[in-house]
histidine kinase
Amino acid sequence: MGQISKIVKTFGRKFKAYSLLWLLLLTSYVPVHSQSLSEQVIGRYDINKKRLLAISTALNLYMILEGQIDLDSAMLMSCQAYNFSRLLPYSEGYDNGSVSVGRTMIDSGNINEAKRLLDKQKNDDKIRLALELGTYYLFKPGNNKTDLDQSLLYIRQAQKLAASSGKTFWKNESLTLLAKFYLQSGDILRSQKLFSEVVGSNKIENNNKGIALAMANQGINLPVGTPEKLSLLEKAQLFCKQQGLKDKEIEVLSHISIEYFISNFDVAKKKLLELVALQNASGYRHTHVSLNTISFIDDMRGDYIPALTSALQAVKTMEQTGDTKFAPLFYSRLALLYLHMDKKEGLDIYLKALENKSKQTRLVWYKSFVNAAQATITFYGGKRGLDLIMPIIKEYPPKSLWERMAVAYLQGDCYASLRQDKLAIHFFDLFLKLSDQMPAHFVYLELPSCYIGIAKFYANTGNKARTQYYLDKASPFMSSAGKLFISWQYSLVQFKLDSLNGNYVSAIKNYQRYKEKSDSNLSLASMRQMNFMQVQFETKNKEQSIKSLTQRGELQQAKLNESNFLRNVTMGGIVALLVIVGLLYKQFRLKQRNNEQLQIQRNEIVNKNQVLENLLEEKQWLLKEVHHRVKNNLHTVMSLLESQSAYLADDALSAIQNSQHRIHAMSLIHQKLYTSDDVTTIEMSTYIQELVSYLRESFTTGQRITFDLNVEPVELDVAQAIPLGLILNEAITNSLKYAFPDNRKGLISIIFAQLDDTKFKLSVEDDGVGLVAGFEQDKISSLGMKLMRGLSTELHADFRVESLSGTGIYLSFNTDILLKSSYQISAQN
């Protein structure tokens, strides 16, 4: 390692400077520019490549963060970063990129609105929304049983709707989501059985694309490391290749590479190189995730030249696609490579990344903190390490299992460096307790390295048993993954243990292995290639620096121009504002004067209205008094006629009595007027009832003659009520006098009804003897008949008399015609 340090001494200083410059640019200009570039690149992707990008980024986050977040959270972070729908990774079967109202509501957080919409949807739209709601709850971050219950509710609803539709496609989509539900619930066997049903259903339908997708889903939806997972994925990849489903083949191959990543680095790298080639061939440009993983594998094997090549290519691809949202993860790979080459410049990059740490970016910078702390202990000892660690864990206490495990190891390593063995053992034991809880598929770097580090501590303290224990913990990882970087450390600790045990032959062999592995990268070809890469890297960074500085200069000039423009606009705005203020003030004064004048006029109007109201009230009382006096006068006339009738007989007496009845009919109207609040209208139903009662008493009919009244509560103007009352009086009087001779019993029916807003009808019918046969209405010359015809003419009414089974008098009139006539007469006067 010392020779490598010497080779890259000059390279180191410049790498440090350029890396710090990259971080500076990352936090200033580059994100603004790359965001637009990123949108342009992604904008050329179809829905399948967008889905692939979301899934690939999520898997990368999930693996790099080693269980600090669940896969559902990683998917959500990925979708939010690219402004994709949160349902995109899961809706492959039915989402072709078209607009979905329900999906939009779910992405906006309006879940209740989406539920209400479900009740209104029909056919395929209803099934799709039920699946989307089920997907939302199933893949909601966290492990809330209520969410699982809600998910199952909507999945079952989708199944029922799919069965009713009779469409195999929707049945398979519902079964696929149900299979994923059982996987989330921990019932792997039931989940796989349902996936097999979907495969079988597509085979029956000869749907080769459906078979490929179903096989892929069956393999993908098995936990990492499950024995049959790899064979299922490889079969699915072959079938996807045969069907030309390149994007799905890429996704399946990504999962295959993960399986090999945790078991065999050699095959994993081969699969990743195949993956990059397939991505390039399909037009998928976001290859930096795969390249970064290849760099990691080469780094772990101690192959620094290819590791650095892949890391630089990953950063280049990231910049070319503008995908800088998770840039610190890729720059950290370069920094970690430097640390593995014993270059302190890598530590400087990590420390620079910690300057902008926050709770919101914790997932990104916490790994940088752990690597920076480990490098500080290595280069500067345990005290400097604690000075870095303690303030940060006080402000940001470790939360996840990985964070607590990493911090425990770092503290143990610090105290081991300070020879405070009891504290070191305490934290190493805590680390061991936590590491046993770590999922197996995340145990690929930190744990084996830490086991060897703790074994080294116990070897240095002479504790052979504990040294052997931790070497045994690390041993399985030495052969399975071929991790050269940690295997030479393993050989070194084994050499120390053999020396403690006095097994010098084995000690010499292990020391030889250590030297062989540690010197394997020191060939002349490696040195030349490292120097060549140094020149490439310097040139690239100089060009990028010049480009970035040029862009910053252009940006500053643009800002200066913008500033001048804003200054001019501001000055113009101030002048315009002053003019507007002056106009507004003038308008305000004018409006104020107008308001004062309006207030004076308003007061005058109010006073005049009050005077008019008083006059109107006085007029009402005067009218009431007039009507009262008219009524009294009419009663006086009636009394005089009554007195006169005492001296008359026969026709003269009858004439007097008829006149009394007519006068009473009019007096009733005047009585109603002066006893009512309204002195202009008469309520006809009570008026008619009172008139009938009066006539019944006047003719002393007793129970002999029955009256059937069907009168609607209608109000009429006085001008209409008086003639109508007189007509009614004549009709009833005629029936009482002539219809029932010889004290016959009989019935008089009176109907007064409103036909529409302005039209009314009046009918008076009796079942008496009727008129003489062959009568002619116009030739009847009695005073009563003439009076009714004349009053009908005054009302502009249709008047007719019929004699069928008795006598009927019918009248229909229109108040609107009467009012118009009154207005015309008033106008003429």
